[in-house]
Amino acid sequence: MFSVIMAGGSGTRFWPASRERLPKQFLKITSDKTMFEETLERVRRFSSDDCVYTVVGSVHEELVLRISSLDSRQVLVEPIGRNTAACIGLAAIHLARRDPDQPMVVLPADHYVSDIDDFVRTIQSAADAASSGGIVTLGITPTRPETGYGYIRIAGQAESEPGARPGNAYRMDRFVEKPDHATAIAYLADGRHLWNSGIFVFTPRTILAEIDSHLPSLASGLREIDSSLGRDDYGAVLARVYERLDPISIDYGIMERTTTPVLVLKCDFGWSDVGSWQALYELRAGECDDRANLLLANAQAIDSQRNLVYSVSDRLVALLGVEDLMVIDTPDALLVARLDRSQDVKLVYTKLKESHGREV
């Protein structure tokens, strides 16, 4: 199958470690490798090297070529970000030139998976189901009333589908936006709601037909780009088309509108979108000291507990008599905040953006 790693995005909730020029997917926060490199290793378990592609912003093209060993033709560059529908559509027109009926898995570059073997088996099952023209998405069994994720509400089981394993394949009822806490508790209890992983499998032919049906303006732009593939003016056409595209997600633009049955594979392979500093703290809790401090830095914690320290330098960070904090240290910016406010870090980023702060 084809694999398409979506590596755009600015990672505002991981500021100040994450910046526009070095967003979350290019940080070493879950291991000694960047999240992009970890994702690349996973997809190479089910896609040969020449079938792996990534979609990036122009500012990250050079970095991706340096760390990935991908051929430049496999690094598809968006002149400006236009959300996931355009990103996936751009990849699909390139892949359709090679084989419009070969399954393509599209997945974010900044997610974590603990059980890689089960992840690989699940993706292979999804590809089997998608090869006949279906749409497949992966839903994660929720473990807590999470308000930071979108959800997929499932209908009846669909065991007769190709690639379906007993007990894990369902028909999609609908996609659900991020809920409030009370609603998330109800979702956890009813067993009909799964976390939306943002991972999809379909063929290029299938997804381009869906875009044609539900996003005609994007479809028109993609046809214009497609007609320029291989020509000297490809870059100019790409820039011109992207300038006029509306940013829209694949979830809202296609999945919430499609009349094609969508198969949902229910998954338990230790997934996290690592969407905040607190999520990272929970993910790496096993590395905490005996007072629940996660010290990803040259750090000393005295009479302190339940803190996260992350640094990109060797400068010593010392904590004394504090608890439930995150301390994120970089050469030009220092963030100190309550760990349970980590979802709000993007407010700092937004304020800096408004004032044209170079720290973005």
Describe the structure.
This protein is 32% helix and 24% strand. The mean pLDDT is 94. The strands form 4 sheets. Strands 6-9-7-8-10 form a 5-stranded mixed β-barrel. The protein has a 4-stranded mixed sheet with strand order 12-14-16-17, with helices on one face. The chain has a two-stranded antiparallel sheet with strand order 5-11. With 360 residues, it is of the alpha/beta class. The chain is globular, with a radius of gyration of 21 Å. The protein has helices spanning 35-43, 61-68, 83-98, 116-130, 181-190, 204-214, 216-228, 234-244, 250-255, 277-283, 345-354; strands at residues 2-6, 52-57, 75-78, 104-108, 112-113, 135-140, 151-157, 169-176, 193-202, 262-267, 271-272, 294-296, 299-302, 308-311, 317-320, 325-329, 334-338. It contains 11 helices and 17 strands.
Give a brief outline of the structure.
This protein has 360 residues and is α/β, with parallel strands linked by helices. The protein contains 11 helices and 17 strands.
Coarse morphology = globular
Profile the largest sheet: 5 strands, mixed, barrel
Secondary structure category = alpha/beta
Span between N and C termini?
37 Å
Give the DSSP E fraction (strand runs of 2 or more residues): 15-25%
Oligomeric state: single chain
What's the total number of strands?
A: 17
The share of residues in helices is 25-40%
Weakly predicted, low-confidence segments? none
Instruction: Please tally the helical runs, counting DSSP H or I stretches of 4 or more residues.
Output: 11
Radius of gyration: 21 Å
Give me the side-by-side strand order of the main sheet: 6-9-7-8-10
